[in-house]
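Bug #77: duplicate submission created two jobs. Keeping one. Sequence:
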Amino acid sequence: MQVSTISYPRIGAKRELKFGIEKYFKGEISQAELLNLAKDLRQVHWSEQAKNKIDFLSCNDFSFYDNILDAAVLFNIVPKRYKDLGLDSLDEYFALARGYQGDKGDVKALAMKKWFNTNYHYLVPECEDASKIALVGEKIFNEFLEAKALGYRPKVVIVGIFTLLKLISFSNDKDFNVACESLLKAYLALLGRLKDIGVEWIQFDEPALVCDLDSHDKELLGRLYGALLAHKNGLKVLLQTYFGDIRDCYEQVLGFDVDAIGLDFVEGIQSLDLVQKYGFDTNKILFAGIVNGKNIYKNQYAKSLKVITELQKITQRIVLNTSCSLLHVPYTLQNETKLPAKTLQHLAFAQEKLQELNELREIIDTGNSTHKLLESNTTLHAHRLESRNDELNKKIAQLDLGNIKRLPSFKERQSVQKQALNLPLLPTTTIGSFPQTSDVRANRLAFKQGKISLEEYTAFNQAKIKECVKLQEDLGFDVLVHGEFERNDMVEYFGESLEGFIFTQNGWVQSYGTRCVKPPVVWGDVSWKQPITAPYTTYAQSLTSKPMKGMLTGPVTILNWSFPREDISLKDSALQIAFAIAQEVLDLESKGIKVIQIDEAALREKLPLRKGDWHTQYLSWAIPAFNLVHKDVKPQTQIHTHMCYSEFNDIIKEIDAMDADVISFEASRSNLELLDALVANHFQTEVGPGVYDIHSPRVPKVEEIKTTLKAILSKLPKEQVWVNPDCGLKTRNNPEVVESLKHLIQATKEIREEWR
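Kept job's structure:
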């Protein structure tokens, strides 16, 4: 039995890539030094996989920012405005990812969206002229030759042609049709070059195949792969799918002239059924994804072996595989020194998943049903201990999810809140966080290490809050925030104050570019212990007569940005968290906070990839979980929520059913496409589409923000519109933030005068 990984994390065991790129951005290291760092990381990652006897390790899974952006650059899908900057290839690449503002020009970054049902974000390729698509890049070839020189023969990984076409932004159907032909020629040229340099296997990643496919999709899929595979010239092709099953095209894919097919048996609900019903071509290899690439709990060997046993009744040509890229889990448990051993033995990060693959292989190869590895794994899972809350679970069992409603109605509340808050036309606010500067992080670290007292830690944060409040008042904001200087992360901060979570030291996962997150681990039943946010929020409110937003993270986002338990349903976990956050909402309200924002940035993240499953498997409990959080607040308390970097157009009605009073969306990187959906669905909630992109270092001009506001007001009634950045300001620096917010306020004042 052979084993494989779809791809491996690239950030490094200690986030070396993140820190190296950020140093390059600051001019602290040269381009040559950054390239050498990247080369060293690739060598380490190949070496680790080789040491763990991975038969099919990968190359071209490394990226400085994003693999989809890499593919766009490889195939010359680069808008003219970036080429006109006259930058070298690497800096042009970073301009696409982050935007550019300097002596060579001023351009925004490409749009950014969530990668299917994960918390990873990809850059959306933008095609201006489909006739110019062609194979122009060298990275993919150089990395294979680099691996080959070290004695490895990796499979070359690249996004498949069908998925890439689905992700590219086209201005019209004609461009799409031209792109199909141009991109096909480019992929054929790629196959030829790879064959010439000695590549044996190429892996085409096609996660789009697990989504809903209509007859046009299947016709396109067949046409593309028919032409592509007719000219593979002796290359072995692995068509790799993940994040679900391929029920709409399984038989079609089975008929393709590929050498191997990768299926997901973790999230692929029907994958085993499909193989059992339609069989498998014994001339092909089945890459069976049985080790979970998205969660960090140890594999249940008995469960995985049961799947393999069933598959072996149909085909013996099986490779044990991860269910998806290991990009979505932390790097290694070796750097976790604070969690007890009895807890760590239940976890597996990327390195440990390599060990799991090997142990499963050993059990299978020996054919021993009483193998000591299997017995110890079964015992481990049978004796896991975690906190249980029987009273809470009883309350959840008695909930009527279809009847969780806030009273009075939105319109009645809106009238009450206008009188209570007395806000101007186009109220201005920010999403919540202000820059987490080095002194803020140092203060938090010193407190955690016991180097300063609670009093010293609190005094520092209060001083920062005072500065932040004064800045917002001086600028002229209408609804203020306290800046969140006490918070490490919008999910981790709450998890640390709730029962049921555990935390890693170095469980970092790439979210996008150099942005890494450290998801908490849901370990037991979740419940509220004591007030979490009131001390700093009420202090901030004492400094101003303007409304101060209480800032909370919603239950669905806390769950979706944590590693969830696997012994209870996601629904029950979400409802446990909802009960806890509901108590926090009422605590803030009882202390005089009149505006409370409950962020659901990740609402869409676990939305099933097939529309038919949306309500039955997710929305039927995700929306009620949010409603549960705020259903008991007073009419005059204004409830806000925030969502970012996802496509919400097709769930607008469900979002409106969350019954918040105000919702802010990321919109700056999606060209305000959301507005048409809001209008079409008669969206009643007041709304703040983000007027500038905080994930780019560039500062928007006043006229730019005014143009965006005019576009918003051409679609939505002025009484419905709020003005805000598109997300929190945590990752930016103070000079950028102050200048950008000045421009936001100035633009709003000028628009108010024009639209009165």
